[in-house]
Amino acid sequence: MFLNVRFVPKAVIQKSDNKKGILMKKLMLILMLVVVSSSAMAEWDFALKSADGATSYYIQNDAILKYGNKAKMWVLVDHKKIIKTNLRKRVFSYKAQFEYKCDEKHYRLLFKTTYPKNMGRGNVIDTFDEPDEWNSVIPESASEALLYKACAGRKLKLKL
Questions:
Q1: Are 126 and 144 in contact (CB under 8 A)?
Q2: In whole angstroms, what is the distance from residue 55 CA to residue 8 CA?
Q3: Is the pTM of this model over 0.85?
Q4: Domain boundaries, the chain
Q5: Which of the residues 19, 70, 81, 128 could staple to 112 if both were Cys, CB 3.0 to 4.6 A apart?
């Protein structure tokens, strides 16, 4: 009785691994595009405006995710004037997903996409998908107002 053993050359295995790697990269790109496009199609509700009126904040009320002491929320930040990034790119708006630790009043950026036009319009300039470190919320700031909205669903009544 003979065993049927098939020899697979190392080069064939490496090609197979390369194909898997390319497939994984394509799947990740598709996933990121779905996340960005789904946030683009969702309804943006006005949340608050900066004291000088130069920046408006919009949120997706229907997409707030609460779990335990944490919450996640999408925010669209719209500037009246061009903001120049550290890469010298001109940005009018960005969409970002924030995560909040409600009891500790901490937040961090999870995902951010910048745009050359108001209200998240135009071709994407940059995408950031590395979660930031946790930051303390500054009292009477936009981040505090957004934290209250994400964590408790309270009305935003702060004047910035």
A1: no
A2: 61
A3: no
A4: 9-41, 45-152
A5: 128
Q: Which residues contact 46 (CB under 8 A, 6 or more apart)?
A: 56, 57, 58
Residue 1, judged by CB atoms within 10 A of its CB (0-12, 13-18, 19+), counts as exposed
| DSSP β-ladder status, 90-101 and 126-128 | unpaired
In angstroms and rounded to an integer, the radius of gyration of the C-alpha atoms of the chain is: 21
Measured CA to CA, the distance from residue 77 to residue 118 in angstroms comes to 9
Contact 78, 55 (CB under 8 A): yes
Among 2.40.10.220, 2.60.40.10, 3.40.50.1110, 2.40.128.710, what is the CATH number of 45-152?
2.40.128.710
φ, ψ (nearest 5 deg) of residue 147: -60, -45
